[in-house]
């Protein structure tokens, strides 16, 4: 079968672009994915996703999601074989959550294409700065009246900023923005710790105010709220569901998806892409195509596209890209630790051990995933798991194994000291380090209009998709936005009207 459009990489960026082109532009799409399954960073394990051995799990995490296991208790073999976690639970490579719950970009796009990606809402957001958890909406309850008024004023002004207007703030750091909008220190501190959490960047001089404004305004535009519910949510049965749904759309529209098909290079003939060279069972195979779309993160694009084919200015921008990185944990427990707040997100800032990181001491976020999203438990499985998260700095911290061990110990120590009976309740723990939480950190200088374009400036039939290309969001929502903008460029059409205004 011949295909006119080849997509290199089956992450959600490649799959959403492919689904739009197959379903709405009647293109014959071929997706080539190097791993044994599609999904990239939204891999899921367990239940209907399959039960890998400890070794397969470790290798798949590393290969598909750039995630490595840094510490487990007990050993990983025992967790997989004796605790049978993949027969009991569905786990992602790390804690994923998506803004605006089921009114996010990929769920609404799937709906427009006749499919469903249900999302379980987080309800309740609890913050602890040392004195116990307080509901986010009550954090300001003990503030002086003037500060509470100022908080409402700053929030109202921010909500009034449209997505287009927010671009003005893309290259302004969060600290400068917060200091400019208010002189009230309580309000400043509130937005600074919230910013560390939503941008996955600890240092407020590194977070982009434009991204902060959009990330906060999107759930509001969707009618959602972090405390009251739906500000964030978990894709039911694991985030891999996103990849499965868009892969299904591609196949139903005549497309093909090949896994275990690593592309060696995109073939260029001067200013035209002519196809790709892919690893085949009998050696390298050449596949011709009229259009080639690359889903690799742009700072890794040189693995398949000669970097010297890009103009110097774009090469420089690609060279400056860096990711938001972090450490995530999965902890198996017999009983919920917060049975009265099962769907909440809990943020402890700072961790009591005061572990210094660039931009401030380490913090801990956690949720009771199987209570929030009961579809993560397989059949009548007993027990639950929690997910934990600490943000790190891309340069240095993520590769410091001693530091990662201190942080994972601090996560467990927090639960031990806060929840009586913890040692009898906890069954297993896996801590992972993720090299790319957000492929391009939401930072001034590399976000907004400085993200690489969806079309090669000199090779007009070579395109790029995913969370590191031109788009105005982070993570999965950002990958979906980049994917739609890429499909627009390929097809010469506008697919954004498939989504409501606030997501375009
Ligand atoms: C631990 C973790 C936590 C996260 N938390 C969140 C969160 O809370 N909220 C959120 O919205 N997002 C989160 N994200 C980010 C989100 O998962 C990504 O933004 C999104 O999945 C990116 O999709 P993508 O298609 O752009 O890239 P990728 O998923 O990286 O896809 C690239 C694909 O290309 C394939 N590939 C690479 N080289 C080749 C080759 N030579 N030939 C063929 N195929 C190739 C890869 O295997 C991969 O499948 C998290 C990510 C991780 C890892």
Describe the structure in your own words.
- The protein is of the alpha+beta class and 504 residues long.
- The protein folds into two domains: 5-44 and 237-321 and 442-503, 3-Layer(bba) Sandwich (FAD/NAD(P)-binding domain), CATH 3.50.50.60; 67-150 and 225-235 and 322-438, Protoporphyrinogen oxidase, mitochondrial, domain 2 (Polyamine Oxidase, Chain A, domain 2, Alpha-Beta Complex).
- 32% of the residues lie in helices and 21% in strands.
- The chain has 16 helices and 21 strands.
- The protein has helices at 12-24, 54-65, 76-81, 85-88, 105-112, 145-159, 163-166, 174-181, 185-199, 209-221, 240-252, 312-320, 369-372, 401-418, 422-425, 475-491, and strands spanning 5-8, 29-32, 67-73, 98-99, 119-121, 125-128, 134-135, 232-235, 256-258, 263-269, 272-280, 283-288, 291-294, 324-333, 345-348, 356-357, 360-361, 364-367, 384-392, 426-438, 462-464.
- The protein has an eight-stranded mixed beta sheet, with helices on both faces. A five-stranded parallel beta sheet has the order 9-2-1-13-21, with helices on one face.
- The protein is globular, with a radius of gyration of 22 Å.
- It starts with a strand and ends in a 13-residue tail after the last helix.
- 52% of the residues are buried.
- The model has no long low-confidence stretch (mean pLDDT 96).
- Residues 8-14, 32-35, 40-42, 64-65, 67, 93-94, 96-98, 262-263, 295-297, 303-304, 328, 434, 436-439, 466-467, 475-477, 479 line the site of flavin-adenine dinucleotide.
- It holds the Pfam family Amino_oxidase.
- This is Amine oxidase domain-containing protein.
- Residues 12-490 form the Amine oxidase domain.
């Amino acid at each position: 079968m011949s295909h006119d459009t080849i997509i290199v990489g089956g992450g959600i960026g490649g799959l959403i672009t492919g689904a739009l082109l197959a379903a709405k532009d009647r293109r014959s799409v071929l997706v080539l994915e190097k791993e044994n399954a599609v999904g990239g960073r939204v891999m899921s394990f367990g239940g209907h996703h399959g039960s890998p051995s400890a070794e397969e799990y470790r290798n798949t995490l590393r290969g598909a999601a750039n995630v490595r296991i840094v510490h487990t208790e007990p050993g990983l073999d025992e967790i997989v074989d004796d605790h049978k976690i993949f027969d009991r639970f569905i786990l992602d490579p790390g804690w994923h959550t998506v803004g605006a719950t089921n009114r996010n970009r990929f769920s609404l796009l799937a709906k427009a294409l006749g499919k469903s990606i249900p999302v379980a809402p987080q309800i309740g957001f609890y913050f602890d700065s040392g004195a116990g958890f307080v509901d986010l909406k009550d954090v300001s309850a003990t503030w002086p009246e003037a500060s509470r008024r100022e908080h409402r004023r700053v929030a109202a002004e921010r909500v009034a900023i449209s997505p287009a207007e927010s671009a003005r703030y893309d290259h302004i750091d969060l600290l400068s923005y917060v200091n400019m909008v208010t002189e009230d220190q309580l309000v400043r501190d509130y937005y600074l710790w919230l910013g560390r959490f939503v941008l996955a960047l600890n240092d407020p001089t590194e977070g982009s105010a434009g991204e902060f404004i959009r990330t906060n305004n999107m759930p509001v535009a969707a009618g959602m709220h972090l405390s009251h519910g739906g500000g964030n949510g978990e894709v039911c049965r694991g985030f891999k569901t996103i990849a499965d749904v868009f892969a299904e759309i591609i196949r139903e529209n005549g497309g093909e998806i090949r896994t275990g098909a690593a592309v060696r290079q995109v073939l260029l003939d001067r200013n035209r892409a002519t196809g790709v060279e892919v690893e085949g069972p009998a050696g390298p195979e050449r596949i011709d195509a009229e259009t080639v779309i690359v889903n690799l993160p742009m700072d890794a694009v040189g693995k398949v596209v000669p970097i010297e084919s890009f103009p110097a200015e774009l090469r420089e921008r690609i060279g400056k890209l860096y990711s938001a990185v972090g450490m995530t944990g999965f902890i198996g427990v017999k009983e919920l630790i917060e049975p009265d707040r099962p769907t909440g997100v809990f943020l402890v800032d700072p961790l009591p051990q005061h572990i210094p990181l660039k931009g401030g001491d380490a913090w801990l976020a956690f949720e009771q995933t199987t209570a929030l999203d009961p579809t993560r438990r397989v059949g009548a499985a007993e027990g639950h798991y929690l997910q934990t998260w600490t943000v790190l700095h891309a340069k240095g911290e993520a590769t410091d194994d001693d530091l990662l061990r201190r942080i994972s110990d601090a996560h467990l120590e927090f639960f031990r000291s806060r929840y009586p009976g913890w040692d009898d309740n906890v069954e297993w723990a896996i801590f992972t380090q993720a090299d790319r939480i957000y492929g391009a950190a939401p930072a001034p200088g590399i976000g907004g209009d400085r993200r690489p374009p969806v079309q090669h400036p000199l090779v007009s039939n070579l395109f790029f998709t995913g969370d590191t290309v031109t788009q105005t969001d982070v993570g999965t929502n950002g990958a979906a936005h980049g994917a739609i903008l890429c499909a627009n460029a390929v097809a010469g059409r506008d697919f954004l009207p498939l989504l409501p205004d606030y997501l375009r």
